[in-house]
Write a structure and sequence with these properties.
With 227 residues, this protein is mainly β. Mean pLDDT is 85; it is low at 1-6 and 24-29. The protein has one domain: Porin (Beta Barrel), CATH 2.40.160. 7% of the residues lie in helices and 71% in strands. It has an 8-stranded antiparallel barrel with strand order 1-4-5-7-8-9-10-11. The protein has one helix at residues 8-22; strands at residues 33-44, 48-51, 54-57, 63-73, 80-90, 94-102, 105-127, 133-158, 161-189, 192-207, 210-226. It is built from 1 helix and 11 strands.
Length: 227
């Protein structure tokens, strides 16, 4: 769920990304290069959560990032490129445990939260499309789908007897997403190229009745082919 107020960082980044997507110089679409690429890397960033007037952040693990997409180059200008991308951010799990005294024994509780984000992004980039080395910067806007699994378990030990109980739940939300990125790729022959980029991904979601702000830094390596 995207809020028009109170989230200036998201709105500013998405506005900049939107301007890049719409900023197609000139009226001509003289496209002479099409590229397909796949990427693999890592992402991190502790989501901010607001619930019942209280706010905080989850200390999540570093997760896996996967990307697949296509680009068209020389769109109306030699150094302007447009792309469509599928992005998946997964395995950035949160785990917490606590102990307390209960009925003269020990109560131990654990909480596991596993978020996964799938997004489809429309990207625009200013890219050096000449030569064999191609640095670029850009941004994108799109739609993200957040899927979160929550598992809670409690273990109680009283008088040498141990009792356990657990439960799980799932919630999802679909909302607008934005990203800013920069990187470089290098031609390696035979129309193939290798590259690396970094990005800042933003998405807000309503999950389990809480407002969750995903702010993820992503670093990925790519392999691609020109056609």
């Amino acid at each position: 769920m995207i809020y028009p107020t109170g989230r200036p960082r998201l709105l500013t980044a998405m506005t900049l990304a939107g301007l890049l997507v719409m900023m197609i110089p000139g009226a001509a679409f003289a496209v002479d290069t099409f590229r397909l690429q796949v990427g693999l890397g890592a992402h991190g960033g502790d989501p901010d959560i607001e619930f019942a007037g209280e706010s905080g952040s989850l200390d999540t693990d570093t997760g896996i990032a996967i990307s697949a997409g296509g680009w068209i180059d020389h769109v109306g200008w030699n150094h302007f490129s447009l792309g469509l991308e599928y992005l998946r951010l997964q395995d950035s799990d949160f785990h917490a445990s606590a102990s307390a005294t209960f009925l003269g024994g020990t109560l131990t509780g654990t909480l596991d939260i596993e978020p996964t984000i799938d997004a489809v992004m429309v990207n625009a980039a200013i890219r050096n499309n000449d030569g064999t080395i191609h640095p670029y910067i850009g941004g994108g806007i799109g739609v993200g789908h957040a899927d979160v699994d929550l598992t809670a378990s409690v273990t109680v030990t009283v008088g040498g007897q141990t009792f356990s109980a657990s439960g799980s739940a799932n919630d999802t939300d679909t909302a607008f997403a934005g990203q800013l990125f920069g990187g470089i790729d290098v031609d390696i022959g035979g129309n193939w190229y290798l590259g690396v980029n970094g990005r800042y991904f933003l998405m807000d979601a309503d999950l389990f009745g809480a407002d969750v702000e995903f702010r993820n830094w992503v670093l990925m390596g790519f392999i691609g082919r020109k056609f």
